[in-house]
Amino acid sequence: MLIFNHSSSLTFTLLGIPGLESQHLWLSVPFSSMFLAVLIGNGAVLFLVVTEPTLHTPMYLLLALLMVADLISTLALMPKLLCVFWFNNREIAAKACFTQMFFIHGASVVRSALLVAMALDRFVAVCEPLRYNTILSHSLVGRLGLMALTKGVLLILPMPLLLQQLAFCSVVIPHTYCDHMAVVKMACNHTRPNRIYGLFVILLVVGLDLLLIGFSYALILQAVIRLNSRDATFKALNTCSAHLFVIALTYAPALFSSITHRIGHHIPPHTHILLANLYLLLPSVFNPVIYGIKMKEMRGKVAQCLCRGNV
């Protein structure tokens, strides 16, 4: 058995989607379409929020931060994936692999933390509407964004650092990107610390964040039940609907992908790899659409831009 010690010269090989190598060129069509949709959709929302003073509210500032996290995750994933699909360029240096891992997983942690902050925003909007601007000041939004970034860096940075201590029995990664668990499985020495830490991050991020989001919405539901007006109840629920769609779209495939990595041994590899890519891409694709449809101010600004363009 060959053993590859980690060094600056170590190079991994990404297989792409095992079992579907002959279909890579066809698969590149939907993937490149999603890549383009993420760049246009998230870029447009970010541009609108930055350039329109009327959108400088806590809700839209948090949305802009979410768009940034989505763009970072997608830009870390897609260029190398398309190189594998289009040019069969599968090699990736160890340092580049660990850097890609850090940005993909780090952006996912930041995204989750921002969804918690947005749940807080919806709680204040429904339960304390008269004090909304007082409680959610711009400085608080800035601190929430900084906390999300810090959480992403501190939780994910140990992953590549721990991997650098391992020797690898194989450098062929059956994946389209440097997923943490996919790389851990290539190591031939003691990987229990890596596996335990990866599970700890999942439980802390997904488990704790979902618990906080659930607690916020339990309080929102309690407040909505107390409302006597049917119109007020509908308005309150409508205020939260976009965020709830995004939460479902973000966490459901992520949880399934994480579980199948550990216990889904009978699931075909290509199914797992496709899902692992989609759980990164789908939220980034649909977030601008969901928020654009549900948020009146966003629709108004888009309409104004389109009207200016037709003049």
Task: Provide a short characterization of the protein structure.
The protein is mostly helical. The protein has helices spanning 24-51, 58-87, 94-127, 132-135, 138-156, 158-163, 180-184, 192-226, 230-263, 269-294, 296-310, and strands at 4-5, 11-14, 91-93, 167-168, 172-173.
Fold-level CATH name: Rhopdopsin 7-helix transmembrane proteins
The fraction of residues in strands falls at under 5%
How is the main sheet built?
A: 3 strands, mixed
Structure classification:
mainly alpha
Say what oligomer this is: single chain
Q: Record the strand order, biggest sheet.
A: 3-2-5
Description of the structure:
The chain is mainly alpha-helical and 311 residues long. The chain has a single domain, classed as Rhodopsin 7-helix transmembrane proteins (Rhopdopsin 7-helix transmembrane proteins, Up-down Bundle). It is 76% helix and 4% strand. It contains eleven helices and five strands, in the order ββααβααααββααααα. The chain has helices at 24-51, 58-87, 94-127, 132-135, 138-156, 158-163, 180-184, 192-226, 230-263, 269-294, 296-310, and strands spanning 4-5, 11-14, 91-93, 167-168, 172-173. A three-stranded mixed β-sheet has the order 3-2-5. Helix 2 packs antiparallel against helix 3 (94-127), helix 3 (94-127) runs antiparallel to helix 5 (138-156) and helix 3 runs antiparallel to helix 9. It is globular and about 65 Å long. The protein starts with a strand and ends with a helix. The mean pLDDT is 86.
